[in-house]
Structure formats: C-alpha cells, structure tokens
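Q: How would the structure tokens look for this protein?
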Amino acid sequence: MHVGVHINRFDHPQGGGALRDELAAAGAAAEAAGVSRLSVMDHYFQMEFNGGAEAPMLEAYTTLAYLAAHTSTVQLGALVTGVTYRHPGLLAKIATTLDVLSGGRATLGIGAAWYDREHHGLGVPYPPLAERFERLEETLRICLQMWDPDDNGPFEGRYYQLAETLCVPLPVSSPHPEIMIGGGGEKKTLRLVARYADACNLFATSPEEVAHKLDVLRGHCDEADRDHDAVRRTLTYSGAAATEEDLDTFSRDIEPYGKLGIDTVIISPHLGATSRWMETFAAPAARRLAELG
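A: Here is the predicted structure in token form.
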C-alpha cells in the first residue's frame, strides 16, 4: 500500500507570501517521505471545515504546475476537479500540459462538483445534480477522444459540441493520464468509474461500507465487460492528524482496507504548513503502509 498526500489548506502562518517556498519544501519533503502522489484541492473558495470561503485558496492547476517544477517522482493531480469548473476541451488541454511538463506524472481526478457557494460567488453556472453527472460523462468522453491520436474529429454531445478535438502535443503518459473519479455513488459515480476511469477514490467510512462499494463497482465492471482489477482503488482517510499516537491509530484503521485491495491511502495535513508534517507524519505513515503489503 502507498501513501498519497492531499494539500487542502493554504493558510501559512506567515501569509500568502510564504506559500511559494512552503509548497516547494512540501514537494521535496513528500518525495523524501516516500509519498507516491501529491494532490491539491480544486476549489475557488475554501471549504467551511477548513476555515470557510474567506480562508486562502489557490487555483489548483497553477499550483500543480508549480509543484511539477519542484518534484520529479510523485504523481500530481487535483482531488477532485469539479466538472463545472472548466470547459472539457480546456480541461483536457490543461491536464495534458501538466502531464507533458511533469514528464508523465499527471492524474485527472474528476467529479460532479458540489460546492454551490463558490459557483454562485464567482458567477459560474451550477446546473442541477442530474445534469452535472451527464456533463461529467460527456467530459470523460471528450478527454478520451482528445487523447486518442487517431481521432481529431468533432464531438457532438447534449451539452458540449467541439468542432475539433485536437490535442498537440499528446500526453507523455501512455495511453493517457490516469483518470480517477472521486465519490462512491452507486448508481452513477461507480458506473462511470467502470466505463471510463483508471482509478476510483472512496472515503474511509468503514471497511464494511467500502467493501460494499467495491462489490457495486465489480457489478458495474461486469456490465461494462471490464476487468474490475484494472481499476486502481484509492481511499481518502481523514482520521489521523500528526502525532505519534495518531500513527498507531492510522495503522490500525487502515489495515482492514488493505485486505480489500486498496492501493493508495490519501491523507491530509491538518495544518497550513505541510513540509514539516511530511517528515513527522507522512514519512512514518508511508513506511507503515509499506509493511502492510
């Protein structure tokens, strides 16, 4: 099992001017800690549980590009991009650029979006939930078509129409950047995972519930005539914070998920400054998960 780190706070004690050096240090510390992937939150406004909309929030893909320049091994991506935030053709181009400039380390984490305040706040359309899922499926199809070197033709969908799906240069990743769909919705989200994604991301609610979600995913894969083992399973864990006692709790909590085939556990610092946390918590957490197999 591997550890991924999700940076979801940007409230450095010394203010915004210190974020540049702190993020560079966090990237270096993540690689030294044996972290396999580094993600950032893709939102316009900060979440309520992290201080609310008035708290600092950086634009995700600009931040990922900066991290790409200060790392060399970790996989990079947003967890997760809201489908409403960017036009699908532009999103595919942005993810491709990150993949090219990082040397093939981009992941396209994507979901149906949910934070209505940031949409209304910045004047971004926020369709009803059912439509957002329909747009998500079209977006997945557009990205895959843009990453297909043999198909530069038009795309005609209900919500999106592209006259050309050119994407030059193509991604460095083969056959394309990993697509990871976040969420555990059984009727829509996991069906989209089975049809289009390389990885899923579930919440660490309980081993029993995650086992059930994986069974549902297996059923969708069977319907799509796809090997369910081809879908990498990742998990977002929000329990442990940063202390030695938390490491013991973390190990106990995660062990049963490993038996379910979870490949990567994604953890987040409960602090604005993350580089030190990488050394004190993420590094030993990575070692403990490696011991679990």
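The two ends are 6 Å apart (CA to CA).

Residues 16 and 118 are 20 Å apart (CA to CA).

Upvote if useful.
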